[in-house]
Amino acid sequence: MNLTIRYSLLLAAAGACLGMYLSTTGSSGERLSVKAGPAPVSSPSPRSGELISPFAPGTAYQENSFATAPPPSTAVYARNGRQVDLGGLTAQEYIAKWNSLARSGDKDAAYNVYQAAAVCASNDEPAPAYNSAAELDRFLDQRKKLLALCEGVNPAQLQERLSFLALAARAGKVEAQIDYFMEGPYGRDTDLAKNADDPAVQQWKTEAVAELKSAAGQGEPFALALLAQVYDAGELLPRDAKLSLAYKVAEADARNSALSEDQLRRNVGTHMSDADFAGALQTGRQIASACCKKNHLLPQE
Fold it and tell me: Region Disordered: start and end of each range (predicted)?
């Protein structure tokens, strides 16, 4: 299968996974999403906070996602699918507000700049396929509002958002570590196979996995889920069914979900020997013990 298509499927699955996570934690949670603000500008929201794959632009809006018109929303959605509160400012004003602090190395300010630019990063992409003219008209109407909100944000700022994202990710901000993976090496539609020799792609592959593991080490369930998918897909890393299963076990533990061994065997362990299956379960429990148990004991902010 074409690598772009395979990786698009991986990212689409990742988006669905985050959508389920946001729906259970609340989209206003500080850990994974920026609070929706009062600004009267909205974009068609991905299903339940679903991330939009940068490798398959617009996929979150397809397949009857607007079969019934959703109620008006005050949220502004960034390219990464997160809700962003610009505090009543335009994207350019918000970037200017945080720019100096971001350039000084502040990870939160850097992520704020990235988020504001990410609101504007997809406005020049083709409209997704819709099942009706009414759905398309709604999308185009919302895009007009976003274009007004993004007036003054230039292509250089859109591209520089990836540098601010990398800064925040390397500084250990969990949301940024996940988004670094989701954005891909260029922050746009990418054929990884065609660009496999590009140093930027090679660096991104190495760093994206490292950032996911860092986020997973902080007990982030979605990062654990992404690592399970990465090891299952075999695109960024050699395919490893045992590690994929181990990260699924750790993710379930981080979410306080109960998965029986029978469920795991039916879903992902069908082709494993008994020894490999038992070893994967043990590895998953060790990962969970190292990353997640300690985080469960931390006081809630």
Answer: 28-48
